[in-house]
Each structure stands twice: as C-alpha cells, then as structure tokens.
C-alpha cells in the first residue's frame, strides 16, 4: 500500500486532547498572570499563610532532631569549658592564697625590721589623674600632651604612669597643659632593677626598636639576665617611686667581639594607646605631711625654752677653755697708767 494513502490521524480511542504546544502556551500565560496578580494584589498571600500554618508543626518536628544534636554538642562543649575554667580558677585561688599569706608574712617581717633599724615607713606618693589630649607635633620625639598643668599642681619631672606601668615623665609644664616624654623616647633614661636578681641598671629609650622599646646599656655579656625578666623602678634617682613596673626583657644579643650585651625591652605601659594616666609627685618632693601650726607651736616653745640652757651649757666649756688659755698666756707688760689706757 502506498504511504500517501495512510491516515495520519489517531483513532478516537487514543485522542490525547490539546497539543503540547498549546498546553505550554496556556500554562505559561497562567503563571505570568498569577505572578503579576500576586505582586500587584497579593492574591496568594492568604493561601501562603494558611499553608505555612498547616505545615509549621511538620517543620517543627523535622527540625527537632537537628536542634537536639546541635544543642547537645554545644552543651558538652560548654560543660568542658566550664569545668576547665573552674579548675583554673581553683588553682589560681590557691596560688593567690599562698601569695597573700607570704605577702602578709613579708609585710610583718618588714615592719619588725624597720622598727628594729629605726627606719621611717615608706610614704605613699600622691598622684593626680589626667587625660592624654594629643601627640606632640615633633616627629623626631615621642611625647604626648596631657590636660593638667601648673594650675593643677603639676611640676616638671613628675613621673607619669598608666594602668600597666611607667609611661614617661613630665618634661615641660604650661599653665593648663603639660608635655610628657614617653619611656621610648631616646632622650629619656630610667634607673631600673631586675625583680628576679635585684641587679640595678639604666633603661634608655629606643624608639627605633620594633616600633618603640627600651634598651639596657652597659650590661656585661655574662650578666644574669633572661628573656621575660621584669624590670621595675629602683627608686635611687629620687624621681620615680620604687617598684613601679617599667618593661620586660624581650631579646638579648651576646656577641663575642664585645664585652657588653645588647638587651632590648618592651614597655609594659601602653605608650601608643594610653588615654587616661596618673601624674605622681616626684619622690624628692613627696614626704610625710607637715605638722599643723597649733601642734608645732608647743614644740617650738619648748625648743626656745631649752635653748638658753643648752646655750649656757655649751658656753661653759668655751669659757673654761678661754680662761685656761688666758691663764697659760704670759702677762702683758704695759707701761701706761690705767688712766692713760682709758678711752676719753
């Protein structure tokens, strides 16, 4: 049978409705219409809300196992961190208790030794809080300006500290502001003492070392120094109170061709980020408070009353000595009469 005579239409039993192209066009137009209608008139929002309310319990039940696993892992991790922190805190507390008992014992021993040697008690250095205003304009120095000056009682040479250690020293005082030279400035030197060995030395500012530090100079190459040693003020200069933390030894260079070691230190104070500081009075000017005038008057009266007695007692040996010297002196011959020797 020739192919041209075959009927290409499907029998009625296999009739499948509209063609695939018609369905594609229809459903595309419907989807576009629904999208535009939902964006303009929010037609599907109630349906979406109802569907979300119906499916919420299913979502909640499906997420519960995942949440339980995550919370269980976090709970175990937090429990381990808490136990580790508790053990560290207990060890630190025991160490602090031991140090506190040792400090009390040392304080009592110090008090007894001072009483035995008849030494004066160490006085607390008065201080004044100040705020750092800005850095100095000179790019070759490391200085800051604070908001306290002559009107606030600040004097040149006053030590300046922050919460971590010695920050510097007041080098110039204005009526309302003061200039503080930082410890890392090359023109500043601080007498320090190694808290581990007790050896005294001088720390010089070294602004070129690691962005700012200090250097211990003229230290022998075989000196007992270790990295991490704490350096505090020695108090021998009469400016800085003893015991203020200054720096820690960061690096030690011992060379065979030199008898001195190069020791680089890192300051403990926040030399580049200090905001609030404390200006202390120099040790040479700070001392025990003076007695009031009312209390000093009886003492001065008693001293004036006893002064003549002491003076008479002191003059007696002098008079006796003069008398002995006159007795030992040979008699002076004078041919003048007593009347001629008198003044008219």
Supply the CATH superfamily name of the largest domain: Rod shape-determining protein MreC, domain 2
- End-to-end Cα distance, whole Å, is 189 Å
Low-confidence spans: 288-344
> What strand line-up does the widest sheet have?
1-2-5-4-3-12
Shape estimate: elongated
Which H/E pattern describes the elements? Answer: HHEEEEEEEEEEEEHH
CATH class of the largest domain: Mainly Beta
Rg, Å, rounded:
46 Å
Mean pLDDT: 77
List the quaternary state of the chains.
Answer: single chain
CATH topology heading of the largest domain: Thrombin, subunit H
Number of beta strands: 12
Largest sheet descriptor: 6 strands, antiparallel, barrel
Structural class: alpha+beta
Q: Please identify, by name, the CATH architecture of the largest domain.
A: Beta Barrel
Percent strand: 15-25%
Q: Could you characterize what this model shows?
A:
It is a single chain. With 344 residues, the protein is an alpha+beta fold. The protein folds into 2 domains: 30-121; 127-280, Thrombin, subunit H. It is 39% helix and 22% strand. The chain is built from 4 helices and 12 strands. The strands form 2 sheets. It has a 6-stranded antiparallel beta barrel with strand order 1-2-5-4-3-12. A 6-stranded antiparallel beta barrel has the order 6-7-8-11-10-9. A hairpin with a 4-residue loop joins β3 and β4. The relative contact order is 0.08. Residues 288-344 have low confidence and may be disordered.
């Amino acid at each position: 049978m020739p192919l041209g005579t075959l009927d290409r239409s499907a029998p009625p039993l296999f009739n499948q409705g509209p063609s695939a192209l018609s369905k594609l066009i229809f459903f595309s137009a419907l989807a576009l219409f629904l999208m535009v209608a939902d964006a303009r008139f929010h037609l599907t929002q109630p349906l979406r809300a109802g569907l979300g309310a119906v499916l919420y319990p299913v979502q909640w039940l499906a997420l519960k196992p995942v949440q339980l696993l995550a919370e269980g892992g976090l709970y175990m991790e937090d429990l381990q961190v808490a136990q580790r922190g508790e053990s560290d805190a207990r060890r630190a507390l025991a160490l602090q208790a031991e140090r506190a008992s040792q400090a009390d014992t040392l304080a009592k021993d110090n008090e007894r030794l001072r009483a035995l040697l008849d030494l004066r008690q160490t006085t607390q250095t008065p201080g004044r809080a100040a705020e750092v205003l800005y850095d100095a304009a000179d790019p070759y120095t490391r200085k800051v300006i604070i908001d306290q000056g002559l009107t606030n009682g600040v004097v040149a040479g006053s030590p300046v500290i922050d919460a971590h250690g010695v920050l510097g020293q007041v080098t110039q005082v204005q009526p309302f502001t003061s200039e503080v030279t930082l410890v890392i400035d090359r023109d500043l030197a601080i007498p320090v003492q190694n808290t581990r060995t007790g050896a005294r030395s001088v720390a010089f500012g070294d602004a070129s070392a690691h962005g700012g530090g200090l250097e211990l100079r003229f230290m022998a190459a075989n000196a007992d120094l270790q990295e991490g040693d704490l350096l505090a003020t020695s108090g021998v200069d009469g400016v800085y109170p003893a015991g203020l933390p200054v720096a820690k030894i960061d690096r030690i260079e011992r060379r065979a061709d030199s008898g001195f070691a190069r020791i680089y230190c890192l300051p403990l104070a926040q030399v580049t980020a200090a905001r609030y500081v404390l200006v202390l009075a120099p040790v040479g000017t700070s001392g025990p408070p003076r007695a009031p005038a009312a209390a000093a008057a009886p003492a001065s009266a008693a001293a004036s009353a006893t002064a003549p007695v002491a003076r008479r007692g002191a003059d007696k040996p002098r008079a006796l000595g003069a008398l002995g010297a006159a007795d030992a002196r040979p008699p002076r011959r004078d041919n003048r009469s007593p009347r001629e020797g008198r003044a008219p």
